[in-house]
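Think of the structure tokens as a kind of shorthand, similar to the way a musician reads notation: each symbol stands for something richer, in this case the local conformation of the backbone. In the example below we present two proteins back to back. Begin with the first one, reading the sequence and then the tokens, and try to describe in your own words what changes along the chain.
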Amino acid sequence: MLGWALANDGACSWRWMMDMNRVDDLTPSEVRVMEFNKSMQVTAGYTVSFRSISERTKGAIALTARPGVTQDTVEQTWSRHGDEIIVMNNVMHLKLLTLPYFGDRNLTRRQREVLQWVGDGKTTQDIAGLLGLTSATVEKHLRLAREALDVKTTAQAVLKAALYNQMYVMDQDAF
């Protein structure tokens, strides 16, 4: 289903995988995943894949039925409530997209601030003047931001901070 989710948007019944299994069209890796899922009683459900604004990111969720529930029962539930389930999952996905992601190291308020100014097209000298800092201090904040985000360039840092929702947030300290 991961392969399906990467290539598609919307919802897909797990019956699709069952149909593939019958025609022996699964890779050895996919067979191992199905065997593991079966051992954990994860045998029926739907996968919902979300539209993304970037080809580099993709969101999906597996909606797994309780152990013992058949795919036929899941299909009946989906036929009655599938549209509502899709709406609820899309709302949750949109909410998750707005939450900041904090990895091993968070950006400081000042690092976020200088990255935001860079993202707005300001030079190091412009930022120093705006914030009442020296250019060397601005460069230091940018270097530490690059290290925290594990990137090589400031442009990469701006992109990664934006993708992680660590820039342009109102009250970062509340997180």
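Once you have a description of the first chain, move to the second and do the same.
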Amino acid sequence: MITSAMAHDLLLLAAVPLVGFVSGFANTLAGSGSLITLPLLIVLGLPANVANGTNRVGILVQCVVSVATFSRRGALPRASVPRILAPSVLGAAVGAELAADLDETLLRRTIGALMLVMLAVVLLRPRRWLESHASGRPANAWVQAALFFAIGAYGGFIQAGVGIFLLAGLVLGAGYELVGGNAVKNLIVLVFTIAALAVFVANDQVRWGLGALLAAGSAAGAWTAAHFAVARGAPFVRAVLIAILILSAAALLGDFRLV
């Protein structure tokens, strides 16, 4: 006989791949998908640090799918990627090691405020987000290295919203156009998620069953989003980015729990 408590738990488990789909779609085009996956994993009974580690399984799989899709569609630029990738991965490893010392309230409000700033930039400077790489003005190599180390450290630390920070860095700091920047963003997240996940695995902070359910939905969402991005171009990606920035800022500045 199935009790009401069992039915509730089964319903939550069934929601994991569905939430994973939404997260994979959002993360591929912008970021902040972890704002919905982390709370669900915690509701399912995982401690915050284990939820943080388990969440990386879905992120890893969705990045593999999105990068492969962008690459097959010819939308993955490879120029200058190594000098962006290296500091991001190093930062992610450092951030994952520091994840246990999270000041949740301060971090949530700081990220929410930064997302409002980015929302203003996206709305007030629309052409900068739609122009080609050739017309961009990338920062010098040292500034880029510091910028992407900091973003990588944040990504290793908590993950939620890192895609938006990476996308802003790639478009505004490294001169990528929006669709190509999205493809590179997913490649960077893929590599530094491997580094961060290794730390969580070493600390026994991953629950593979829930991670697999999350990954199944995330992969489908990532595949769908990558096809939409290539087919519809920068205006579509920018519209999704604006929507996600608004929702994320509202969640982070309200009572929504990040972790």
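Compare your description with these statements about the second chain. The radius of gyration is 17 Å.
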